[in-house]
Amino acid sequence: MLIDDRLPPPSEHDRPIWEPNWRLWAWVLAALASTVGCFVTGGLLSFVLVCAALACGAHAATRALPYGEGLREYRQ
Question: How many distinct structural domains can be found in the chain?
Answer without folding.
Answer: 1
